[in-house]
């Protein structure tokens, strides 16, 4: 798998451009804001550091297919999960910046883990996040993180597997989400199924963000299938995550983006 991912990165990188070379203003703003965004970073990262020192045992079972850094049943303590499964700081901060850039108010997250990324998503004033997690022990830890950060009132946690929980949630849902972040059950056919279920519940201006789109051959194939849907006006692939939107007024574009570095000053 390591060699396959190295090859996947190389194929992606050959077609990728630096973020500051993106021309459409909306796409450029997503990345420019991500580099400027600092709201909540220190507070949330302090909670991440606490988790990385927490030796409390956790039920290790995972309802999905793990993550790119974690096997399906690896990790038996909070610290192990914190060190292997949480989104990196710059990617979590980018998600928070995208909430700000799009003025998203209603967000759905599939895959709470220990609640760090959820806290980033919910950091803005008036933002409300509905988050699903299949592991009750991890959800309990996440709730403590949100309580410590004063964000519990903005987060609606639901414990259960996606396949068990989503049908009822969608049946009762009357308001669409402005952003949907899928970060769990890393299996290509499952990703396609969830996107098909959730698309009618995403606003036309909203963002769909899929995590670990190059984690395995079936995830990469699923993401390629999603990008081919002509309904999207823009898809962005930053390797670790894939972003898609049906936002009106955009000239259709599908581009791989290097989300690192800063533009050199023009002399």
Number of domains: 1
Going by CATH, the homologous superfamily would be: Vaccinia Virus protein VP39
Level of helix content? 40-55%
SS content category? alpha/beta
**Beta fraction of the residues?**
15-25%
SSE series: HEHHHHEHEHEHEHEHEEE
Q: In the CATH scheme, what's the topology name? A: Rossmann fold
What is the name of the CATH architecture? 3-Layer(aba) Sandwich
Q: Tell me the distance between the termini.
A: 44 Å
Large-scale geometry: globular
Strand order of the largest sheet: 1-9-7-8-6-5-2-3-4
Q: Please write the CATH class name.
A: Alpha Beta
Summarize the structure.
The chain is built from 10 helices and 9 strands. The chain has helices at 2-14, 25-36, 41-52, 78-85, 89-102, 116-121, 136-149, 162-172, 188-198, 217-227, and strands spanning 16-18, 106-110, 128-133, 155-159, 177-182, 202-211, 234-237, 241-245, 253-258. Helix 7 links the parallel strand 3 (128-133) and strand 4 (155-159).
List keywords for this structure.
267 residues; Rossmann fold; 10 helices; 9 strands; globular
SSE arrangement:
Blueprint: H1 2-14, E1 16-18, H2 25-36, H3 41-52, H4 78-85, H5 89-102, E2 106-110, H6 116-121, E3 128-133, H7 136-149, E4 155-159, H8 162-172, E5 177-182, H9 188-198, E6 202-211, H10 217-227, E7 234-237, E8 241-245, E9 253-258
Parallel strand pairs: 1-9, 2-3, 2-5, 3-4, 5-6, 7-9
Antiparallel strand pairs: 6-8, 7-8
Helix pairs in contact: 2-5, 9-10
């Amino acid at each position: 798998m390591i060699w396959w991912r190295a090859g996947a990165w190389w194929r992606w990188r050959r077609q990728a451009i630096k973020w500051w070379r993106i021309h459409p203003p909306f796409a450029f703003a997503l990345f420019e804001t991500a580099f400027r965004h600092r709201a909540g970073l220190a507070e949330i990262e302090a909670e991440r550091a606490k988790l990385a020192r927490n030796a409390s045992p956790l039920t290790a079972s995972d309802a999905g297919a793990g993550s790119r850094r974690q096997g399906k049943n690896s990790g038996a303590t909070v610290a192990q999960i914190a060190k292997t499964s949480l989104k990196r700081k710059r990617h979590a901060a980018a998600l928070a910046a995208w909430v700000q850039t799009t003025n998203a108010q209603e967000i759905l997250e599939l895959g709470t883990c220990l609640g760090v990324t959820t806290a980033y998503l919910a950091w803005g004033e008036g933002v409300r996040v509905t988050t699903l997690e299949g592991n009750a022990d991890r959800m309990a830890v996440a709730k403590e993180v949100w309580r410590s950060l004063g964000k519990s009132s903005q987060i609606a946690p639901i414990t259960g597997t996606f396949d068990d929980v989503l049908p009822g949630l969608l049946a009762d849902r009357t308001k669409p989400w402005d952003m949907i972040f899928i970060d769990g059950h890393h299996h290509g056919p499952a990703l396609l199924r969830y996107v098909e279920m959730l698309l009618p519940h995403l606003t036309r201006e909203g963002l769909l963000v899929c995590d670990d789109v190059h984690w395995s051959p079936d995830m990469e194939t699923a993401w390629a299938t999603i990008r081919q849907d002509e309904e999207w006006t823009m898809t962005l692939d930053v390797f670790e995550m894939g972003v898609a939107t049906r936002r009106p007024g955009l000239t259709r574009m599908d581009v791989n983006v290097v989300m690192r570095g800063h533009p050199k000053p023009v002399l």
